[in-house]
Amino acid sequence: MKLAINNMSAGYGSRTVISEISVSLCSGEVVCLLGPNGSGKTTFFKAILGLIPSRGDISLDQRSARTFTTQERARALAYVPQIHIPPFPFSAMDIVLMGRTPFIGAFSAPSAEDRREAARAMDLLRIGHLRDRNYAQISGGERQLVLIARALAQSPRFLIMDEPTLHLDFGNQVRALDLIRRLATGDMGVIITTHVPDHAFICATRVLALLDGRIAADGPPKEVLTCALLKRMYGVDVDIVSLTGGRCMCIPAMGGAM
Predict the structure, then answer these.
(1) Is the CB of residue 16 less than 8 Å from the CB of residue 59?
(2) Which fold does the domain 2-225 belong to in CATH?
(3) CB 214 within 8 A of CB 20
(4) Which residue of 101, 105, 173, 235 is surrounded by the most CB atoms within 10 Å?
(5) What is the Cα–Cα distance from 33 to 152, expressed in whole angstroms?
(6) What confidence tens digit (pLDDT) does each residue in 72-92 have?
């Protein structure tokens, strides 16, 4: 499946946050959206998902997303927001089952198949032991994993994740990034934001660098993530170090100008 964004602009009220963005994303890709605070990353996601008004066009396999029903859009696009706590004492399994909503009739209860898909998503993230726990009373990192499981239970074609490693400890960050990389080997495409450029080197096939509401660079991580671009985006000097196996990582140049 191909997600095509053509000349998209969006914002809040009279304030435009992202301007004239045109980009195509395909199943099988892990696209990492990088940019400083306020550059428009979350706004970009909300516009794709139809959560805020936007100008321009968004299409899925050459069909305008404006013609999709809410259910059709939910089957194509799943969203993992930054962490939230609902006002009601839902169990972790209840939260994950919400991802099956596009497949459940308006007056129907979740089926055995829906419950199997929810359990499978939780097991994939190694959080099956949380199924009966109160979602509001588990740790922030555990809630983040539950939200990822909810999105996986939705069986989307594109998984859109806003800082998916937020609140996760080091081990769960590594496992989440590895899962993201593996998910995109099939028919699913994954788009993530992160404040850690190293995450792009770990799991992404492509980087979109967002600056002042526009795409500043687009391409493979090793080509896009240069010292000059990172300095331009974040205002700090960074060294990019090559590791064994062809991997790379960013190290702050602490002796340079900050």
Answers:
(1) no
(2) Rossmann fold (3.40.50)
(3) yes
(4) 173
(5) 20
(6) 888 899 999 887 777 788 999
